[in-house]
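re the bet — no i am not wrong, look at it urself. input seq straight from the record:
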Amino acid sequence: MGFGVSFSRPGLFVFTYQNCTEIVATAERLHGVRRLPRFVFARHGKEAGKIVFEIPWRDVIEVRRADYLLNAALWIRYRVGDAVKSVGIEAGLLWRHRIRELEAIARRRRPDAFNEPVPAEQRPSKGSVTP
């Protein structure tokens, strides 16, 4: 019912880190910070506050939103040097509105990263020549 973070395309059978990563979007970057309750897994408490991922908006190359079952997700692909990495941020029923808010922030920061379908009236007709 909460949030999950995966390091692949979001989906039903994808391993996610449930409810232990805080997603922070700033003007310069998007990052995830590990938030583990101190009373759970006490021996792993030293990982609280650790940055799980950090994505500068300038490195984002693709953002896609997906709605499946009662969940919503945002899939973000970005460059790290010559490599392309991805992170999936998923939210359950009670938090799916946060995915829409995160999508709006991403649209403001990287509008060119969204692959929108071309409306039918703007598609070239068969046999037409486009300049």
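see?? Strands lie at 3-6, 17-18, 21-25, 29-34, 51-56, 60-68, 71-80, 83-91. told u. also The chain is about 10% helix and 40% strand. so pay up
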